[in-house]
Amino acid sequence: SQQGEEDPQALSIQEGENATMNCSYKTSINNLQWYRQNSGRGLVHLILIRSNEREKHSGRLRVTLDTSKKSSSLLITASRAADTASYFCATDASGGSNYKLTFGKGTLLTVNP
Amino acid sequence: DAGITQSPRHKVTETGTPVTLRCHQTENHRYMYWYRQDPGHGLRLIHYSYGVKDTDKGEVSDGYSVSRSKTEDFLLTLESATSSQTSVYFCAISAVGGNQPQHFGDGTRLSIL
Q: Which of residues 43-102 of B touch A (CB under 8 A)?
């Protein structure tokens, strides 16, 4: 079963706008990661947030984590056409095997010029 | 980009034939993973390796086997391919464990007719 689930499934915005994607998960985690996938390519790691962190920034990316609600959000500010991609959250399972990540089904972001 | 090469990049074969996909890394990372990506299912773990000759099953391992005889190579074999194994297969590597960032290859698109 999927540990992380992204919402919405698809998002279409204009260049310059902000994009927010959400991820919900079911069990306790050690950390949560966000990845980007451009069409026809492999996933690229964006950011990792640990379970004891509430917010993390990297360039135009802002990630929040609410462990009480078992949810995370990824905010991309001032979006660009090059941000068009699918975005996935991935979680481990606290207390379980630390070898593995479980990925959600992704949010397809389209940024229109 | 992390040095990960998947081969072949595309393959079309017939039901019942054996198929082997190769993942080669130049990063000397300990952990290697095979995923499949299908519409509506996201990314699902097939098998992973935590060292030479050390492998374990993932979420969707039925019909697949793996081998890792040296650090740099991780092979995925479909002993007798079925149409349900038509998918895009991704290899990933990680230096220090699965709940840390993973680096992905660009995938193998496999079609089984």
A: 43-45, 48, 50, 56, 58-59, 90, 92, 97-102
Type of residue found at A64: T
Nearest-by-Cβ selection for A98 from B41, B99, B107: B99
Tell the burial category of A22 from Cβ atoms under 10 Å away from its Cβ (0-12, 13-18, 19+). middle
Q: In the structure, what pLDDT confidence band is assigned to residue A6 with cuts at 50, 70 and 90?
A: confident
Q: How large a percentage of chain A has pLDDT more than 70?
A: 91
Residue B98 scores a pLDDT above 70 = no
- A101 and B103 within 8 Å at the Cβ level: the answer is no
Pick from B4, B23, B18, B3: nearest CA to B74: B23
- Is the per-residue pLDDT at B2 higher than 80? no
Subunit contact A103:B43, Cβ cutoff 8 A: yes
Q: Would you say A27 and A3 are in contact if contact means Cβ atoms under 8 Å apart? A: yes
pLDDT score recorded for residue B76? 98
**Measured between CA atoms, how close is B100 to chain A, in angstroms?**
8
Rounded to the nearest integer, the mean pLDDT of chain A is: 91
